[in-house]
Amino acid sequence: MAISVLDVRDTFAAPHVAVRARATVETASRRLPLTVASAGLIGVLEAIGLLAVALTGLDGVLSSPARPAGWIVGGGLLLLAAWIVLCAGSGAAIIDGAGRTLLLGIAYAELALVVMLLVISTAVPFSTPGGIPVPVLGLMALAVPVGKLLLASAPSAQRWVAAGPRTRVHRADPVRTHRTLATLTLGIIGLSLTAVAVLAPVQGDGPNAPASVFSQP
Length: 217
Hints:
The protein is mainly α. It is 65% helix and 0% strand. It is flat, with a radius of gyration of 34 Å.
């Protein structure tokens, strides 16, 4: 018999069952913004272009009668290699969402380099490829860092980087998942090679013998 209001409630009410809530974590697929893809693509293409220019122009520099000293050539190649790696790495970093600081830093450095070369060209004239005027060539060169700065500073690019790197789906090792199948495949390959070696041996003598590069005295 229930001796209180609480006992009456517990007597006629359905028993309370604690149900453990299952937390479902859904990882929404992040869509790569066009600004981020364009900025990263510019960085990668710039690295490929610099590599192509280095490979095509290195022979001319080394074979020129007015070739600079060895330490100057080595230092220039080292700086060019670092520039190529940083351009490609900064493009990949912003696409991955790791950050845009490296891309912005490279773009500012390229702006300073182009401006410095334009100032130097006013005092020391030099030949340009295809006879392009120096101001036109400078504007063409400025388009690359300015484009990277505008694309990397867009609100969509900032939100992309603020969200952090994209999560990668962990995939199980197929060898561990299908260990029996991998073992059978390895055994079949071994038996096939053994059968070929036993049933079709290499003839050491006769007209069908393979030519050997070794000769016995």
